[in-house]
Amino acid sequence: MAIVLVAYYVVIALTGTLNASTTVTIEGQQSVDGEDYLTLQMKTSDVDLTNRVLQATVLPIPHGEFVGERAGEMSKNLRIEIVSGGQTTSVVTYPGESIVDPTTVVLALDRGDTFYPWDRPFSDFRVSVSDDETGEDVPFELTIENSARPWVLTATVGEPETVDGVSVLPVTLDGSRDALSVTLVVFYLLAILLTTLMAVVTIGSAILKKKLEFANVIWLSATMLSFPALRSAMPGAPPIGTALDFIVLFPCICIVAAMLVWTGAHLLWRESKDLRRRDLDDDEAAAAAAATSAADS
C-alpha cells in the first residue's frame, strides 16, 4: 500500500496536476510592429467531445492608440472574426468608446471521444481583427489560457495570411487529458480486468471442488452490477460507446453474466434434484399400487 501511495504522489508531482498556471504554450512567431496593437486574450472554458465543440471567451486588450480615455475602454470600433470548421462561427464587434467585456465564442472540434481516455481533440481556426468602420487591418497578438480541466492544451500559430487586406492568423489548438486522469482510468480498467479474472478463477475452483453455493451467485451478481458504476466513476467518462467499452467493459460484463447464468442454472438443477426424485418415487409407488390392485382383482 505504501508503494502505491508513493507512486500516486510521484505521478501528481511529475504531471504538474497541481500547477496553478493556466497559460497555454503557443508555438510559432507572432510579430507585432509598433506600440499600437491589441492583445487578443482567449480563455477556454469547456471541451465538449459529445457535441465536438470547444467553448472559450475572447477579450481584446488595447495598447497604444487603441486605449480609450477611461479604464477598460476601446477607442475604436473593432471587428473580430473567428473562422472554425470551414465557416465563420463567431463575429465579435466592440463599439468605440465602450467598456470591453469578454465574449463567448464556440470552436469546432475534430475527433471525438472514441479513444477515451487517450483522446486527442484539436481545433483549427483562423482569427482576424479589423476596424469595423474602415475595414483596415488591426495588428494583434494572441494569448491563450486554459480553464477546461482536466484537459492539457497546446497551440500552434502559422504564418499570417492576408485576405481582403486583413491579416488572418491560422491557429491549431491541440488537447489531451492530463496524465493523472489517464492513470486513474487505467487503475479502474485494471480493477475491472482483475475482478473478472478473480470471478473466473473462483467459479472454476468451485466447479472442480464441487462446492458451488448460492453465495457465488450473489457475488457474481454484485460484480456484474459494479462494472457500470466503475465505468461512470472514471474521470471525465463520456457516454457508453467508446473503444474502451468494446475492448474491456462489454467483454468483462458478458463473461461474468455468462458465469452467473450458468452457475444459477446449475444450482437450480442440483437443488431441485430431491424434488424431481420425489416425483419419480411417487410415480413408481403409484404404478406399483396399480399393479398390485390389478393382480388382486
Could you walk me through the main structural features you see in this protein, from its secondary elements to its overall organization?
It is built from 5 helices and 13 strands. β12 (161-163) and β13 (166-177) form a beta hairpin. The longest helix has 30 residues, at 179-208. It is 39% helix and 30% strand. With 297 residues, it is α+β, with helices and mostly antiparallel strands. The model has no long low-confidence stretch (mean pLDDT 82).
- End-to-end separation: 83 Å
Q: Biggest β-sheet: count, sense, barrel?
A: 7 strands, mixed
Summing up helix and strand content along with how strands pair, one would put the structural category as alpha+beta
Radius of gyration: 33 Å
Instruction: Estimate the global geometry from the Cα principal axes.
Output: elongated
List keywords for this structure.
four-stranded mixed β-sheet; seven-stranded mixed β-sheet; 297 residues; single chain; alpha+beta
Secondary structure layout plus pairing:
Blueprint: H1 2-15, E1 25-27, E2 38-48, E3 53-62, E4 73-74, E5 78-84, E6 87-94, E7 98-99, E8 103-108, E9 122-131, E10 140-146, E11 151-157, E12 161-163, E13 166-177, H2 179-208, H3 214-233, H4 243-271, H5 273-296
Parallel strand pairs: 1-11, 2-10
Antiparallel strand pairs: 2-3, 3-8, 4-7, 5-6, 5-9, 9-13, 11-13, 12-13
